[in-house]
Amino acid sequence: MAEYVWVDATGGTRSKSRTLEGDKEYKPEDLPVWNFDGSSTDQAPGDNSDVYLRPCAVYPDPFRGSPNIIVLSECWNADGTPNKYNYRHECAKVMEANAEHEPWFGLEQEYTLLDHDDRPFGWPRGGFPAPQGPYYCGVGSGKVVMRDIVEAHYKACLYAGVKISGTNAEVLFGQWEYQVGPCEGISMGDQLWISRFFLSRVAEDFGVKVSWHPKPMAGDWNGAGLHSNFSTKEMRVEGGMKHIEEAMKKLEPHHVECIKEYGEDNALRLTGRHETGSIEHFTWGVANRGTSIRIPRETAAKGYGYFEDRRPASNADPYRITKILMTSIFGKL
Ligand code: ADP
Ligand code: MN
Ligand code: MN
Ligand code: MN
């Protein structure tokens, strides 16, 4: 069984299955191009509705077990142009043009589990939980909910070879985070999208919804981000701090352009409160969680390492984030 997965028009994933003959080790180029009805997903008009699925990455299927596979696919229109929501195609070109810099990314995916009333799972009906404080990295009933989803998702990622590097309960009751990375180039977007598919798929088994919204609850509750950690070959070795500071200079004038790529409804989250920098200005600092970009203390102390772009929203497309970081810093393609 091959589960073809694609990114839809709403920033979610969709999938459908087909049977393949044999059980060889499939690579993307061995797999058939497939298609779906794009008029049902807002990805194509009704009178020309076929959207093509071109396989681009293959993973062992953690739900059905090997030799079954998960096939991440790019969406292409019938006229041979990339679909409007196919951000991978352009991202891959930028990664290839700048491969000499060996860009590594590590994304921190925050998300909120929702009950069927669309409020965070475990929140009292018609009321609110106690103020934030006990929930971040919390242990125990009343502090965290649905750890079974978190654990099953972690194992699903490991089984599939997705480089999940950790997980933790978040500040808002019902919110969690996992990290994927470091991944080089285009594989960052691929792996994050597959990890999101896995999370939605696992939560489905528990009858729980996953919200990727950056501000699931208005008011004095933390939002959800997709902190994007970044380094190049030059930043990771002695003298790297110089390259990190240069990147800050390159990113500053591209602030508005970057924000456009960093997810919907992000203005609700980037208020300058709740451990965020204001959406209005580009700021950076060492160990400061109220800035657009944070240089980890360890990186500043060693003089090389990576930086953390804290601006992207939890619902941002990783292909768009990783691409704009590269073009802002290197200006190529
Ligand atoms: P935080 O302290 O912001 O919560 P996390 O531990 O949640 O940080 O996430 C850190 C992320 O940074 C991980 O995804 C990790 O893979 C990534 N990372 C670590 N080193 C590098 C590096 N040199 N380049 C890019 N990403 C890195
Ligand atoms: Mn984190
Ligand atoms: Mn976090
Ligand atoms: Mn972070």
Automatic annotation (TrEMBL):
One of its GO terms (cellular component) is nuclear periphery. Its EC number is 6.3.1.2. Keywords: ATP-binding, Ligase, Nucleotide-binding. It is an enzyme of class 6 (ligase). The keyword Ribosomal protein does not apply. PROSITE patterns: GLNA_1, GLNA_ATP, GS_BETA_GRASP, GS_CATALYTIC. Residues 1-80 form the GS beta-grasp domain. Residues 87-333 form the GS catalytic domain. GO terms for molecular function: ATP binding; glutamine synthetase activity. Homooctamer. GO terms for biological process: ammonia assimilation cycle; glutamine biosynthetic process. It catalyses: L-glutamate + NH4(+) + ATP = L-glutamine + ADP + phosphate + H(+). This is Glutamine synthetase. SUPFAM superfamilies: Glutamine synthetase, N-terminal domain (SSF54368), Glutamine synthetase/guanido kinase (SSF55931). It holds the Pfam family Gln-synt_N. Belongs to the glutamine synthetase family.
